[in-house]
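Translate sequence into structure tokens.
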Amino acid sequence: MIYVYSKWLMRLANININGSPRLCVKGQNGYLDIASVLQNELFSDLRSFLEAGKGALEAAKQLETLRGQKYDRAAFAPVITDPGRILCLGLNYQDHALQSGRPSKPPWPEVFMRNKNTITAPFGELVKPSVTDQFDFEGELGIIIGEGGRFIKAAEAPDKVAGFVVINDATARDWQKAASQWTCGKNFDATFPLGPELVTLDEMDPTNLTLKTSVNGTTFQSANTGEMIFNVWEIVEFLSGICRLAPGDVIATGTPGNVGMALNPPLFLNNGDIVSVEIENLGTITNMVSDGEKPAEPWPWKPKRIDSPLI
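Result follows.
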């Protein structure tokens, strides 16, 4: 199938300026606050910016030639903090499916959802829930919906997508496996870093990008997005048949093999670990694991420890 890609590239970031996150475009030598320069506060956050349509994107692109300001990594907030939906695919790489005891090519997409409170900054803390000792990493390509719509055919999907981000779909494996649904293991607060920028298309093929995930400097996941079972455009097509995709919706496209659970011995994340996910052309997110809030007394709900990678 032939896909038509946009002819321009732009990098957008959500940066804390004077104590508040502001949507910025990457210009010459730094970033520019879009709303301030264009004098339109609707452009101060990504969701309202995308809801304004392609005219907003075109206006922001004109700022790329201007001199911007540099910011430390700590200033970068999640690219989007209030998406209408976070839709996620599981088992979308053959090696991950096999390591999880599933068919190498599942006939139907495995879909679950996250809530917006799971989102955290691309260089902020990745919070390990105090109720799990099986906290795992999952490097993924993320889609941010632009125009969106309902019943979008795969060939038309590139025109409905705003761009792409890097994601770590960090998971409490024991909570994920304690029931038939994955919701609990995927919805702890501050376990879903995304960023560092939203990168729009520039004849870039998102079905052919290198993805790597490392823990404390050692690479464990190394794959290409071309190894997905359902590619990014097929994913948009499938999900748009379920619901109307709206500007700012986030889609996590699944992780390749060699997550911590699948290693021998398994590798789970602990306080102080450094996790990085890098995707070609998009950048790198890097997060330090920190311990989450603990209950005042022993918590009665504790999943049975499961040492098998099978889901």
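Note: The chain has two domains: 11-75, 80-291.
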